[in-house]
């Protein structure tokens, strides 16, 4: 299968540089608290690119999102892709549920899916190895390093999975894991907020 991300990867590129369309889990938040079956259309690029959405949360243990759209690969631009993306949730220490996409390529939990130029599928940032335009920002860099350190303490891979929720190591007590997880989650949220602000300023300038 051709297109972006189908073969070997080159150097790190950014979501902004690839004009990636971004689909965040937050856009589904109003429909994730109850049992829902719905269909809709979402538009990108000022309505030039449409994505058909089918969401089914009637069974919270088997919830899924189905996305149907054309590729962004000029060689196969008319090809229609349909991907079913599993939805799952974790329980923060302060209660409630936090929903995630399960990336179809990596199997990792992610809060955003990306479709860059040349791409065929909405995958996670890690699947496409997309960096951030603001990664060199001092504030973001500090937050990213801190999140990577906490991620590693939780049994994650550190830098390569700094914003992915790590699974509790078998040897770690639940109380310790929940305390560290909450700290990691707060840092990741701050890093994402900082990155969103910087990226918005960059895009506005461009």
Care to describe what's here?
- With 206 residues, the protein is of the alpha+beta class.
- The chain folds into 2 domains: 15-130, no CATH class; 138-205, no CATH class.
- The protein is built from 3 helices and 10 strands, in the order βββββββββαβαα.
- It has helices at 125-128, 138-153, 174-205, and strands at 13-14, 21-24, 37-44, 49-56, 64-70, 80-90, 98-102, 109-110, 112-115, 130-131.
- The chain has a 6-stranded antiparallel beta sheet, with no helix packed on it. A two-stranded parallel ribbon has the order 1-10.
- Strand 7 and strand 8 (109-110) form a beta hairpin.
- Helix 2 runs antiparallel to helix 3 (174-205).
- The longest helix has 32 residues, at 174-205.
- The protein is globular and about 50 Å long.
Q: Layout of helices and strands, plus pairs?
A:
Blueprint: E1 13-14, E2 21-24, E3 37-44, E4 49-56, E5 64-70, E6 80-90, E7 98-102, E8 109-110, E9 112-115, H1 125-128, E10 130-131, H2 138-153, H3 174-205
Parallel strand pairs: 1-10
Antiparallel strand pairs: 2-9, 3-4, 4-5, 5-6, 6-7, 7-8
Helix pairs in contact: 2-3
Measured distance between first and last alpha carbons: 33 Å
User: What is the total domain count?
Assistant: 2
Which parts are unreliable, with pLDDT below 50 for 5 consecutive residues or more?
6-11
Q: Which structural class is indicated by helix and strand composition?
A: alpha+beta
What share of the residues lie within helices?
A: 25-40%
Largest sheet: 6 strands, antiparallel
The order of strands across the largest sheet is: 3-4-5-6-7-8
Question: How many distinct helices?
Answer: 3
């Amino acid at each position: 299968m051709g297109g972006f991300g189908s073969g070997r990867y080159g150097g790190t590129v950014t979501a902004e540089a690839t004009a990636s369309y971004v689909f965040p889990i937050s856009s589904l938040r109003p429909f994730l608290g109850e049992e829902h079956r719905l269909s809709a259309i979402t538009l990108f690029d000022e309505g030039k690119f449409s994505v058909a959405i089918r969401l089914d949360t009637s069974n919270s243990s088997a919830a899924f999102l189905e996305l149907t759209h054309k590729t962004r690969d000029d060689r196969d631009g008319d090809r229609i892709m349909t991907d079913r993306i599993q939805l799952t949730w974790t329980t923060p220490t302060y209660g409630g549920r936090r929903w995630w996409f399960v990336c179809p390529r990596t199997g990792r939990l992610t809060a955003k899916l990306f479709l860059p130029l040349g791409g065929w599928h909405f995958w996670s940032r890690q699947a496409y190895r997309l960096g951030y335009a603001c990664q060199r920002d001092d504030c973001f860099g500090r937050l990213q390093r801190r999140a990577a350190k906490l991620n590693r303490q939780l049994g994650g891979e550190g830098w390569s999975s700094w914003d992915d929720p790590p699974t509790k190591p078998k040897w770690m007590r639940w109380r310790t894991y929940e305390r560290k997880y909450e700290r990691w989650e707060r840092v990741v949220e701050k890093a994402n907020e900082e990155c969103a602000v910087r990226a918005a300023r960059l895009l506005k300038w461009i």
